[in-house]
Amino acid sequence: MKQTFDEENKVITIETPGGYKITISDEEKEIRLTDQKGSVIKMNEHGIVLESKGDLVLKAQKNITMESGMATTIKAKTNLKSEAMNVETKAKVNLKMQGTASTELSADGHTVVKGAVVMIN
Questions:
Q1: What is the rounded CA–CA span in Å between residue 108 and residue 98?
Q2: Is 49:41 a contact under the CB 8 Å cutoff?
Q3: Which residues contact 105 (CB under 8 A, 6 or more apart)?
Q4: CB of 118 within 8 A of CB of 112?
Q5: pTM confidence score
Q6: Which helix (H) or strand (E) holds 47?
C-alpha cells in the first residue's frame, strides 16, 4: 500500500499493490478513482465522468432517472436497443425519427397514426 502526500501541489494519492488508485487534488480540482485496467471515475468542476475499459452496467432495484438541464445525447457505434413492457416517447414540440437505409413501424395488434394532417410520402 502506498500513500503520497504532496504538500506543495495539495495532492493526496493512495495506491494498492493491485493497481487501484485514489487521487484527491486541489491543484487539478479533482477526485479520481482508477482501477488496474484503466477505468476511471473522475469528479471535477466540469462534472462527473465514468469511463470504463469494459462494460458499464447501471442496476437499480427500483427506478433509474436521468435528467439534464440542457441536452441529453446517447450514441452507440453499432446498435441502440431498449426493451420494456411499454415504451413511451413524448416530445413537447417536435418528434423526428429517421432511418438512413430503412425505417419500419409495425405491431402485431392495431397500429394507429394520428395527427391534424397525416402526410404519407
A1: 22
A2: yes
A3: 111
A4: no
A5: 0.76
A6: strand 47-51
What lies within 8 Å, CB to CB, of 81 at 6+ separation is: none
Where in the chain are the domains?
Answer: 2-51
Residue in this structure with the C-alpha cell 433509474, named with its chain if needed? 64
CB 53 within 8 A of CB 37: yes
φ, ψ at 41 (rounded to 5°): -115, 120
State which amino acid sits at residue 24. Answer: I
Grid cell 402485431 in the structure block, residue: 108
The CA distance from 107 to 23, in Å, is: 52
Instruction: Summarize pLDDT for 37-81 with one digit per residue, the tens.
Output: 999 999 999 999 999 999 999 999 999 999 999 999 999 999 999
Q: Which residues contact 113 (CB under 8 A, 6 or more apart)?
A: none
Give CA–CA dist 99/45, Å, rounded.
Answer: 38
Cell of 18: 493491485
Q: Where are the alpha helices (DSSP H) in the chain?
A: none
